[in-house]
Amino acid sequence: MAEEMLDALDRAGVRLTGPRRRLAALIARREGHFTAADLVKDVGRRRLGIGRATVFRLLELLGEQGLLERIDLPDGSHAYIPCEPTHHHHLVCLECGTTTDVGDCGIEAVTREAARRSGFTIEQHRLELFGRCPNCSSAN
Ligand SMILES: [Zn+2]
Ligand SMILES: [Zn+2]
Ligand SMILES: [Zn+2]
Q1: What tens digit of pLDDT does each residue of 87-97 get?
Q2: Residue 32 gets which letter from DSSP?
Q3: SS3 34
Q4: What ligand has the least distance to the C-alpha of 122?
Q5: Which end of the chain is more exposed for a tag (fewer CB within 10 A), N or C?
Q6: 89 C-beta neighbours (distance < 10 Å), count
Q7: How many angstroms separate the alpha carbon of residue 32 from the centre of ligand 2?
């Protein structure tokens, strides 16, 4: 995953400095979603010598390449998930932060119907589903 990220950035003409490489490796190892603040904290704890600005810039660059998706959590904060650059949706566990990819789940039909009713030409959509993963559900 880190290699994949670095290759994509390289193809996009992004300069791959040491801090960016170390940061990409750190992001690739994360499980589930994380916030920019989580990443800044992690970098500080490991004394990687990576500044806040580098963290925010790399998140932005990975987002532009479709390798990181920004999701809006129900509490109003934003988080990121490492992602495949193909269209899909996420199931997000509110308990442990695990994310699972799902396909369109019939939303194409919903968009078509919304387009028909409103006269809009719909070009894109976003959908995130929040709840509890099987592990967290069975723990309760
Ligand atoms: Zn994904
Ligand atoms: Zn869970
Ligand atoms: Zn979709």
Answers
A1: 889 999 988 88
A2: S
A3: strand
A4: 3
A5: C
A6: 19
A7: 10
